Amino acid sequence: MPQHRFLLTVLCAGCTAIACESVLGIEPIDFQPDAGVDASTDAVSDAPDTQGADGQPDGDSGPDDGGFDADADAAPPPPVIIAPGCAPEVTCGPDNVSCCESRLVPGGDYSQGCTWSETTPCITDAYGPEHPSTVAPFYLDTFEVTGKRFETFVEDYNLWRSNGHPADGEAEHPEVPNSGWRTSWTDRLPETSTHLEFHVYCDAYPPTSEDFYTYDPFNEPNRPINCVSWLVAFAFCTWNGGRLPTEAEWEFAGAGGKDNRLYPWGDDEPTPAHANYVADGEPLPPKTLRVFDVGHFPLGKSKYGHYDMGGSMAEWLLDRDGRDWYKAPPGNPCDNCANLGTPDDDLLQRGGNWRFTKYDMLNAKRFSNSGTVRSTYSGIRCARDIPE
Predict the structure, then answer these.
(1) How many structural domains does the chain have?
(2) Rounded Cα distance, 346 and 367, in Å
(3) Contact indicator for 12, 55 with CB cutoff of 8 Å
(4) pLDDT (tens digit, 9 = 90+) per residue, 200-236?
(5) Does some domain include residue 190?
(6) Is residue 166 included in any domain, yes or no?
(7) Residues 277 and 357: beta-carbon distance below 8 Å
(8) Is residue 213 in a domain?
(9) Which residues contact 52 (CB under 8 A, 6 or more apart)?
(10) In this predicted model, what pLDDT tens digit does every residue of 314-372 receive, in sequence order?
(11) Which domain holds residue 202?
């Protein structure tokens, strides 16, 4: 099986992204995704500096307790890496960085969930009880997967599948045993690239302008992909050298760790400048697709520099929906935990979406869909492991 390698890149204060060894005096870090993508053009990013004055990614106040060991001999991982699948000229967001950028989430301890009371924003007890949770450091893609990134997956899909992917155990979370792909699911994936395109056109083929799909990589390359099932989201992240984030990881990133934010941007009430959602008093969007390019709402950026974690698309997670998961071990307390399921289960999504209200953008809000369902508001954001 051919392996494709790409050089992790660092965004350094006062310079463009350059190879790690020339800045830090260390050997380059080779990340080897299981994807079949030729990432030779992705080794160097033209992205501008996005670090804050403290040397952390813009908006990041540094690791939370329980994250990196400052006494460790190994050099800390770079704050930003570039996943395969994006040509250098394809950029996203207000800073025109690579659409394949993935930002470090330092990990640590935090309070997950939300206990319902008359004084809390939780509108149901399904978000709680609030409980201690720990996650290891990981990377989370800066943006939701765009149509252009997905097009690369479509182009490589037949070859990737013919090489035996996704294989049993691929994309396993390093802290969650048996969380990788299962071969019993493989026959339920689209058979060919043509079937895969049919899948993300929400079965509208040939597609027309009246449909709700976002997949239009030529005319709208930076719109977030929708109409993806959990199975296809899992397969995409596997191909792209990543995996689906766990519920605990996603909420840590959204809440800013110990900051325990209500929304990804903080505790301020949402406004149409923060995210793409249905605002108070606004009617449900009409039968037209109202989706913006990824990174369109800089006010909605999270503590660790991620865009559109509120609104836009509901992002698939690894976990299934278990109403009692937060009430006893291993879900409470959680130590790099995940409530594993199958495509036939109700599987979790987070972040609200363009057709939901402000309450659905609460970091603690939980909602789910069957793993085989495709909807106009379901999208993808991949997590990635810290390279060894």
Answers:
(1) 1
(2) 9
(3) no
(4) 987 655 555 556 789 989 889 999 999 999 999 999 9
(5) yes
(6) yes
(7) yes
(8) yes
(9) 58, 59, 60
(10) 999 999 998 899 999 999 999 999 999 999 999 999 999 998 999 999 999 999 999 99
(11) 109-388
